[in-house]
Amino acid sequence: MTTLSIIKADTGGFVGHSSVHPDMLAAASEALREAIGDGLLIDGHASSCGDDISLIMTHEHGPDAEPVHSFAWHLFGQTTTIAKRLGLYGAGQDLLSDAFSGNLRGMGPGYAELEFTERPSEPVICFLADKTEPGAWNLPLYKMFADPFNTAGLVIDSKMHAGFSFEVYDLYEEKRIVFDAPAQLYDLLMYIGAPARYVVHSVHSKTLGEQAAATSTQRLSLIAGKYVGKDDPVMIVRAQSGLPAVGEVLEPFAFPYSVAGCMRGSHHAPIMPVSIAQAHPARFDGPPRIVALGFQIKDGKLVGPRDLFDDPSFDRARAQANEMMDYLRRHGPFEPHRLALEDLEYTTMRQLEERLADRWEAMAPVAVRQ
Ligand code: 13P
Ligand code: 13P
Ligand code: MG
Ligand code: MG
Ligand code: MG
Ligand code: MG
């Protein structure tokens, strides 16, 4: 069995929250090369979206493996040291714990991991996002694996016709449920249509009995108890041969749907599919970006990446995202650009309530008419 792990963290932004400094990425690539040499990893590729570094790694240790998580943790320690030396913004931002113990759960870095027996040809797509939260994967996963208007294979491929199951986490109460698609589509949508709380964690093929997708489902602010930046999630999707074709996996991103994140993690904004060269959110710390790195996995080796959104057929999505950004920005501090009060990552409301407590005057209650 091969495990594909993406482990990611923001360990400092260059400049502000817009990008990763090349020295940090070089250090990550060098550490991956050493880990391959030491036999810990089969292969590895360091990449980034915005100010988050992603380590894309193949190995045989399975998900949640101590040696792999520990390696990533210490690597992020090294990139933090570089960030501090260069005075980069928010050095070590996503490292919430002082010491590593066992695995990365609850420690700040995000991770998506998927273990599988390699098929004769194994195309996978690694999605990396910045300036948004893990629920941002709900809509595209629904489209890829449950919407025949997106994925033709659901109707015309006999290996897909039985559908897929969606594992959904409740991030507030730490519980999980599995929904069967298409039989329980409407139940599924009731939950995942609320992506701040309910997040698709994995998707499985009913016919193949194989896991097809894995997402990072941490919620940093719930772990830290305060705003420490958005999670900036990652996702792995396997493609072809009874799973959605590469083009069916990418198709949802032709629509720049609205996500929570952007400036101060507190605004709705469109998600913009971009090439690696354009994955540096600057305008209003946005619009939120997503990149798609395609690999063929052969004997555990990562053949790639192909920069899949480096394609003019996503130009319209990018143009539409810019139009939507103009439209939303003109709302300034008003909803629905700004998030609802309970979802704001930054707020002055508690101080205001204290300071203005005695200026609010009670009004006579409205009489209820019988
Ligand atoms: P090919 O016939 O080129 O292999 O394409 C099959 C497919 O997956 C198209 O989506
Ligand atoms: P990051 O989570 O990408 O660091 O973003 C933080 C932020 O507040 C951007 O405005
Ligand atoms: Mg940051
Ligand atoms: Mg980020
Ligand atoms: Mg972040
Ligand atoms: Mg072909």
Classify the secondary structure makeup into a structural class. alpha+beta
> With helices defined by DSSP (H or I, 4 residues minimum), what is the helix count?
9
> How helical, in percent, are the residues?
10-25%
The whole-angstrom Rg is 21 Å
- Find the count of extended strands (DSSP E, 2+ residues): 15
Question: What's the shape?
Answer: globular
Short key terms for the protein model shown above:
about 375 residues; alpha+beta; Alpha-Beta Plaits; four-stranded antiparallel sheet; 15 strands; about 25% helix; globular; binds 1,3-dihydroxyacetonephosphate; FBPase_V_sf; carbohydrate metabolism; hydrolase; Fructose-1,6-bisphosphate aldolase/phosphatase; FBPase_V
Walk me through the structure:
This protein has 2 domains: 1-114, 2-Layer Sandwich (Alpha-Beta Plaits); 118-351, no CATH class. A hairpin with a 2-residue loop joins strand 14 (289-298) and strand 15. The model has no long low-confidence stretch (mean pLDDT 96). With 370 residues, the protein is of the alpha+beta class. The radius of gyration is 21 Å and the shape is globular. It has helices at 22-37, 66-85, 138-146, 153-156, 185-192, 220-224, 246-250, 315-329, 349-355; strands spanning 2-9, 43-49, 52-59, 110-116, 122-130, 164-170, 175-181, 198-205, 211-215, 234-238, 258-261, 267-270, 272-273, 289-298, 301-307. It is built from 9 helices and 15 strands. Strands 5, 6, 7, 8, 9, 10, 13, 14 and 15 form a 9-stranded mixed sheet that branches. One magnesium ion (MG) binds at residues 10, 17, 50-52, 130, 229, 232. Catalyzes two subsequent steps in gluconeogenesis: the aldol condensation of dihydroxyacetone phosphate (DHAP) and glyceraldehyde-3-phosphate (GA3P) to fructose-1,6-bisphosphate (FBP), and the dephosphorylation of FBP to fructose-6-phosphate (F6P). Mg(2+) 3 binds at residues 230-232.
